[in-house]
Amino acid sequence: KSNAMWGGRFAAGPDAIMEAINASIDFDKRLASQDIAGSRAHAAMLAKQGILTDTDAEAIREGLLTVLSEIERGEFTFSTALEDIHMNVESRLKEIIGEAAGRLHTARSRNDQVATDFKLWVRDQIDAAISGLEALIRALIAQAEKGADWVMPGFTHLQTAQPVTWGHHMMAYVEMFGRDMSRFNDARVRMNESPLGSAALAGTGFPIDRHMTAEALGFDRPTANSLDAVADRDFALEFLSSASICAMHLSRFAEELVIWSSAQFRFVALSDRFSTGSSIMPQKKNPDAAELIRAKIGRIFGANVALMTVMKGLPLAYSKDMQEDKEQVFDAADNLMLALAAMTGMVSDMTANVDNLRAAAASGFSTATDLADWLVREAGLPFRDAHHVTGALVAMAEKKGVDLPDLSLDEMKSVNEAITEGVYDVLTVENSVASRTSYGGTAPAQVRAQIARWKEVLG
Ligand code: ARG
């Protein structure tokens, strides 16, 4: 038999394959509570505008609450023949309240309905991502406070560069995740306009009040153009692109944790709670959570590319292609929240191996730049010459198999006469980090100032 919602002009029902490719209920049932919230706002508005009687509006309101509680209790039977969440809800409403259910769809289309439902869902996920990021930032700040003056190697090209502090490294990620938070916030501000009442694409002749439904659903205002409103998925794409950048940051940090927890580095110990073992090698403790977080960018960025590709080239306004938006966003959101929570757990639990960090910081001629700076400051050499002299000293130390502070003053003087005893002061890693007092630099005082600024922001 033909479809009860749109089958008026059809003599035959859909082929089973048609039904299978067309139905979205298996995944868009996740929009149930948003769909019902949207319908309740719409019905209340229709009644206030005199488009629905108060009796019908009341029956719809009650009926929708019943449907919602059936869904929440798992007592609702979803039907593929009814395609999607919108028609499943309406059809059940009809079973419960009868004819009045058929008046709910006045001045509305599934096009503005789905745009509204999906926006409400994405908005919740933006809020969840922001709280997940805040929890992670708090965990990073706690680590930074503990080790504001623990010295570790800073790297470029993953080669020892200059000593930095543990707190400085943790706070670098706080800046990244802070920008992610602000990106989600920006997206939320931009997307918070209600598509409801745009109807199929052209608006409606019924005297509806779009401002009323917008307000009831927590939107700042109705969308300004009905064609755009039903054709727009920018909000989903902005969510996915913000999520992709955030997942990229998570992936970089996860990679560092994988390296840092290896036997070769031993910078950190991950907790048992966030590690796994091997079924064959009894000694193993693997950083699986970090590895999976490192990998999540694959599906999250994949979702971004997939939806961007679905949307490109679509003529206005709605096309069924757009039904392919949801699974991508659902999957990306689920995995982003999981990755954020797992990273927060790992960061809170991990223990830095302070002695190993310091030893690693002191090796690899990490204070060579300090020595060159000293030659500029104390011996008046042009920086290029100082760089050259220091390079020669590094070569000498390397040949002897020692670090820079192990060279004797005579050995130093043989390279440049101007070097004095005072040079040894700048060759320790502690003095090196303490000297980097420029704004945003690695000196513990700067790191503590950065921590204080963040604590003020977070309140
Ligand atoms: N299930 C559809 C979707 O997710 C709802 C909108 C259907 N609109 C239509 N004109 N067929 O996009």
Automatic annotation (TrEMBL):
GO terms for molecular function: argininosuccinate lyase activity. One of its GO terms (cellular component) is cytosol. Keywords: Amino-acid biosynthesis, Arginine biosynthesis, Cytoplasm, Lyase. Signal peptide: none annotated. HAMAP family: Arg_succ_lyase. Belongs to the lyase 1 family. Argininosuccinate lyase subfamily. This is Argininosuccinate lyase. It comes from Celeribacter persicus.
